[in-house]
Protein: LacI family DNA-binding transcriptional regulator
Amino acid sequence: MARVAGVAKSTVSRAFIHPTLVAAPTRERIRRIADEMGFRPSRVARALSTGRTGLVGLVVPTLSNPFFGPLVAATQQAAEEEDRQIVLMISELSAERETRIVERLSREVDGLIVATSLCEEAFLRKVAKEIPLVLVDRKVGRLASVLIDTPSGVAAIADHLIGMGHRRLCYVSGPPGSWADAPRIAALRARAEEGGADIVVAGPIPPTVDAGIEVAETVAAAGVTAVIGYNSATVLGLLHGLGTRGVRVPEDVSVASADDFILLQSTKPAVTVLHLPLEEAGQAAVRMLERLLRGERPGRPVVIGPRLVIRESTLRARPPG
Amino acid sequence: MARVAGVAKSTVSRAFIHPTLVAAPTRERIRRIADEMGFRPSRVARALSTGRTGLVGLVVPTLSNPFFGPLVAATQQAAEEEDRQIVLMISELSAERETRIVERLSREVDGLIVATSLCEEAFLRKVAKEIPLVLVDRKVGRLASVLIDTPSGVAAIADHLIGMGHRRLCYVSGPPGSWADAPRIAALRARAEEGGADIVVAGPIPPTVDAGIEVAETVAAAGVTAVIGYNSATVLGLLHGLGTRGVRVPEDVSVASADDFILLQSTKPAVTVLHLPLEEAGQAAVRMLERLLRGERPGRPVVIGPRLVIRESTLRARPPG
DNA sequence: ATGAAAGCGCTAACAC
DNA sequence: GTGTTAGCGCTTTCAT
Structure:
């Protein structure tokens, strides 16, 4: 390539990386010839010489949960803009496997994005010292992180409901031991108190349609006019279970979901959901990682706020009586 | 590292790659010292020297469709066993974007796995000449590929149904223009003919719960005793729509799904589905790629057969009258 | 503004 | 069985 263009290879190299250091005519000629011969600088050789691979490790616990697909997609896209490639690893919800993966990956990529990490804090701290690390959906001390503020989103649902006259709401909680429930319930209670409403908590139940159908019994008997489900499966079940019991949605009871799996937009009625802007989260994570890679400080966690998507399943409360 | 162990670096290198060429004591010593100092051979340097990066490109159209999550996970796991890493790219269902991605990736990885490719045949052929390429869920001439034989799976559903005395079945077809429908319908008709049954085709309809609910009207009026839905969303809708119209599942009508999104196992009744063994597909793809990388010929496409999972939603047909 | 040369960390061919 | 050496294709000083 350099020979063909009649210049030294260092000049070719410069033409690509520091275009300003090369005289315009030379630069153009090099570019043109490179195009003609389909020349692309080898990332590997560059990596060896610069110490940076252009690779970003992305670790997610699973791809079965619809939460992570969009996150991975967004991260990949954002990384691509920075001319980086994503090395994806899936921990299969095992903390031990995740630890191994992160350990290994940390020696082979420029930086790491780890979503909903199950690892121990101490380990993550250690890793962050060795390599730029961004946590998504997990907070560990001052480590760089992108947080999705579902509790405040759930609170927004409560506001919406209370604003429509509902005074007695039910939250159907998720699987026993889910770390997600407590903050949501706390946020919910706070809003309810402000708005003069009551919160009834049903569950915990497994996040399945079936469990949702069964818990409908409890919900129907609880004397509430609105219910918020832990996730889409729960809500799908609720819809079905309430219908079976002759409870009309939304006329008798309003229903909302704390997540937004796509099916919920095509049920009857379409369900009011919390949309989690995972695209934003992915972009934010990449931006933050890029900052770390430039040697800048992580700064405060980026908090992504869910957006309330109001659909047919939530309605003004019927006037009492 | 070499210095610490008192040997030449080539010996260290050999101790890792061709252990047999190094005397056992030397090898052990090297390994021990390497462990102690946490030494890991640089993949980048190795890549530059050998011309192989250890990277495998994986291209999928989207992660929103639950089909691809498990496929990606399986592929990643299988690749890991071979000490390879997956560079994931998502085409967002755009043929143009996919083409760009494949083009780019092909210069930076050892091999490529492309799922449900939207690219043109000629392009894929060209790429396959430049770099080991395995297609998943798409067949192009003699190119290496892993196929998922849904038509024969759908036929298995028909057999199951016909075996239980059903003589009039309905297939609810997917989105207009779906390439998946025609082969399924053909397989269905063939089986029906053999078994002395009739096939009614409803649709095409969009693959949404809502459309499934609406098409239930048609299905209910079609005088069939069993219905096979294009996918999970369709079936979820059917379940709901049939119920609303007083049609009991499975007593009046049996219902089955041509895919197996997890929700369907926790509906009421649990739905008979076609399980697509995507784990196998991922493994097969990696194995096949590995073969190509060794310079062997691709061989015939690997065909993965779906497995029929019989649940509560399919029942013996009621005796006529 | 450009060239020459060193070196990134490894592998592989060739000596010994 | 092990050491020596020559690259792999770039980036980056240091000259010019």
